[in-house]
């Protein structure tokens, strides 16, 4: 989501003749687009601002803007604590960034723009061509969340669930394909809650799949409660829809899920997985896990391990619980942090073993890889397969923007290494 927002901010500031630069000495304005999911994200803001202050100590001060969820959640605190910041702009207000920059150029007082203007924001963005020219591009279709998990800041930083119109999304998707996109990743804090008038996510996927030149569709992040039958069947009907689903569960314990206010059980979660596998047996899953949530005992933790071992997620993102101010869980009694760290390490070792075994099993298997770019100063190309695995192939021919059959020859922790297959009728494809 942040990458999409950052790209759209760049589109906006071009209207007042600002362009991106990689040279720190050339920068007249810094935009730090932030996430507030974990505590370290907030700390990073102060670190980055401090770095900018230090660099420009003997130079003319640049404009410093903090955008995104940290700005929304802690805007006033940021402005009071760090006077070097010129403005904080929430994720539903960044369409106002040009006016704010102009005011900051005039050395106006610091600005707090954290209103929830999501309709106004997208009205502004719809009038501005999306200039993203990546082979794999992001497209926000839904924002906000109404689930109110007790650990999560999203309902407070992004607001209530809002779905863009199907026509707006199709129009922007066509822009991205015209710019060279071969794959589009549909984004939302709760993407499968997409609901505009009578149109659901499944309807949107089927409409987007009609765009000529678009070869692949993905979506993230999903909630187990919003996997409707029509979305499940879209994975059977739509060949362009990739067979990897990121489906956060957070814990394998019903007790902890209830305490989190997740509003689903492990049985219900597994039922969704079974339905999806029945619709398309090739589907694989990744997930998010919170380790050491308040009230988690070893039995709860073991149930999380059991779930990991049962589903065999090919990728997982796991973190120690981070209490976020303003959330109901903020005041819950934390578990011992030494124990939490020990559990996290144990869990990640198991998750890594499952991931490693899966990747090793891909050796000598064939994959369909979409190549996104050439590796700098090397005769190698980077791409991703249908399951979002990173793949590198050596080639004298430009592979950028193409989908090629690749045989995997070697793997490491994060990357698959392969060679192009000349015979397009080759079998032994990974599933």
CATH class of the largest domain: Alpha Beta
Instruction: Label the CATH architecture of the largest domain.
Output: Alpha-Beta Horseshoe
CATH topological fold name of the largest domain: pyruvate-formate lyase- activating enzyme
Helix content: 25-40%
Overall structural class, as computed from helix and strand content, comes to alpha/beta
Write down the overall mean pLDDT.
93
Share of residues in strands: 15-25%
Question: What is the number of strand segments?
Answer: 19
What's the number of domains?
Answer: 3
What can you tell me about this protein's structure?
By secondary structure, this protein is an alpha/beta fold. The protein folds into 3 domains: 2-117, 3-Layer(aba) Sandwich (Rossmann fold), CATH 3.40.50; 120-360, pyruvate-formate lyase- activating enzyme (Alpha-Beta Horseshoe), CATH 3.80.30.20; 366-420, OB fold (Dihydrolipoamide Acetyltransferase, E2P) (Beta Barrel). Helix content is 35%, strand content 21%. It contains 13 helices and 19 strands. It starts with a helix and ends in an 11-residue tail after the last strand. The model has no long low-confidence stretch (mean pLDDT 93).
């Amino acid at each position: 989501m942040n990458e999409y927002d950052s790209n759209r901010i760049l589109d906006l500031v071009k209207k007042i003749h600002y362009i991106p630069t990689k040279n720190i000495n050339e920068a007249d304005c810094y935009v730090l687009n932030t996430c507030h999911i974990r505590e370290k994200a907030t700390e990073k803001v102060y670190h980055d601002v401090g770095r900018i202050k230090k660099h420009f100590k003997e130079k003319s001060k640049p404009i410093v803007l903090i955008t995104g969820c940290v700005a929304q959640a802690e805007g006033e605190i940021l402005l009071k604590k760090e006077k070097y910041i010129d403005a904080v702009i929430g994720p539903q207000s960044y369409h106002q960034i040009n006016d704010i920059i102009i005011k900051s150029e005039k050395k106006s007082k610091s600005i707090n723009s954290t209103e929830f203007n999501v309709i106004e924001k997208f009205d502004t963005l719809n009038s501005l061509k999306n200039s993203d020219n990546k082979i794999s591009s992001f497209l926000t279709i839904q924002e906000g969340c109404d689930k109110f998990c007790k650990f999560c800041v999203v309902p407070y930083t992004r607001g209530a669930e809002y779905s863009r119109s199907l026509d707006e999304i199709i129009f922007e998707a066509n822009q991205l394909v015209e710019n060279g996109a071969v794959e589009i990743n549909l984004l939302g804090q709760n993407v499968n809650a997409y609901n505009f008038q009578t149109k659901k996510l499944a309807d949107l996927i089927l409409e987007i799949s009609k765009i000529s030149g678009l070869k692949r569709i993905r979506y993230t992040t999903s909630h187990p409660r919003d996997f409707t039958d029509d979305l499940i069947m879209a994975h059977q009907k739509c060949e362009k829809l990739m067979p990897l689903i990121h489906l956060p569960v957070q814990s394998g314990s019903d007790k902890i899920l209830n305490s989190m206010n997740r509003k689903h059980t492990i049985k219900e979660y597994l039922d969704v997985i079974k339905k999806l596998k029945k619709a398309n047996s090739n589907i694989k899953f990744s997930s998010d896990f919170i380790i050491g949530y308040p009230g988690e005992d070893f039995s709860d933790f073991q149930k999380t391990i059991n779930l990991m071992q049962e589903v065999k997620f090919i990728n997982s993102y796991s973190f120690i619980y981070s209490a976020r101010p303003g959330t109901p869980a903020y005041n819950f009694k934390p578990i011992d942090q030494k124990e939490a760290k020990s559990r996290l390490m144990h869990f990640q070792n198991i998750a890594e073993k499952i991931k490693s075994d899966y990747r090793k099993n891909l050796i000598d298997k064939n994959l369909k890889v979409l190549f996104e770019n050439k590796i700098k100063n090397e005769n190698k190309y980077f791409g991703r397969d249908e399951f979002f695995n990173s793949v590198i192939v050596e080639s004298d021919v430009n592979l950028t923007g193409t989908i090629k059959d690749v045989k995997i020859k070697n793997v490491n922790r994060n990357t698959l290494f392969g060679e192009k297959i000349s015979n397009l009728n080759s079998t032994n494809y990974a599933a």
